[in-house]
């Protein structure tokens, strides 16, 4: 069994995540190819596509949300993702076990919901949403008219038992919108299929592989996928620590000496959130500086295929500034490439600003 170096794994991941080279691809095709985009906050998916697609414009993704070709829905790991409507339908049944477990164990809501018939509450919530989409607050308030339970807990139950999508104008570029729910199958006009864990594994490997079973499970937030993977026709490698890596037979791994150009990755980028062992793209030390205590994930500087710092946009009055904060001294050529990319980023992200700047801080 061939052993892949960490550098080879890094290059394979960069290639599949469209970060070795920019690829001319529609936003819809990119969302599908990447196995969805992290979307805990409304706008990180736009930055993710800007990092990967030449000439990407926010209106393209906004249009896909408005036409219901892509949706925002809680999926893997219980977090909101932006995925194609087809993938949302296919994957929500697979990860349902995660939501069932949460309803029993969630420290904030489980005790309030323990005495309720969950199926009955979910049915009532679906009936309400079939009449009209409702905000998170309004849905809980309506359900609380029938059950003497905190409205937030009732909304949590509905979100756990039903495939609820967050509909526009939430996450439309340049607009603000509160979280408003509709049922996925009614929103896109298609029924949910029977769950297929094998297809979920296949899509993960296509977007992030080669990877271990633990990596797949960390991304999906569910367990016992090793049993499924064992029955699949997969290529197998070893990593430097002797762990088995899985991959699709038709896919190859690029040469580890392929250069990795500097990149600015957006906040919550899935490159650093989709593995049990994230060292293929970020060291444990740097990960603690990028992911805050309250779970926010900063935009990052990618140099040589590895995270070497973070970036943030600050705004004051009519000025927008991109601040680059490298963690170590970077080669002048790479730092220059990042500075140039930051200039393009702030122009793209803040077109209304009268003044735009790029500042580079000294490593701490």
Please describe what this structure looks like:
The chain has 364 residues and is of the alpha+beta class. The chain folds into 3 domains: 6-188, no CATH class; 197-247; 282-360, no CATH class. It has helices at residues 6-16, 27-33, 44-52, 58-66, 85-91, 96-105, 110-113, 118-131, 136-144, 151-161, 184-188, 197-208, 213-220, 225-230, 284-290, 332-349, and strands at residues 37-38, 70-74, 80-84, 134-135, 164-166, 180-183, 235-238, 244-247, 263-265, 299-303, 306-316, 319-326, 355-360. The strands form 3 sheets. The protein has a 6-stranded antiparallel β-sheet. A 5-stranded mixed β-sheet has the order 9-10-11-12-13, with helices on both faces. The chain has a two-stranded antiparallel sheet with strand order 7-8. Helix 8 packs across helix 10 and helix 9 crosses helix 10. The protein is globular. The protein starts with 5 loop residues before the first helix and ends with a strand.
What is the strand content? 15-25%
Question: Overall pLDDT, averaged?
Answer: 96
Structural class label: alpha+beta
Please give the order of strands in the largest beta sheet.
1-3-2-5-6-4
Number of strands: 13
Radius of gyration: 21 Å
Q: Helical content, roughly?
A: 40-55%
Q: What is the number of helices?
A: 16
Amino- and carboxy-terminal Cα gap: 42 Å
Overall number of domains: 3
Based on CA inertia axes, which overall geometry fits?
globular
Q: Low-confidence parts, pLDDT < 50 over ≥5 residues?
A: none
Describe the biggest sheet?
6 strands, antiparallel
Short description, anyone?
The chain is α+β, with helices and mostly antiparallel strands and about 375 residues long.
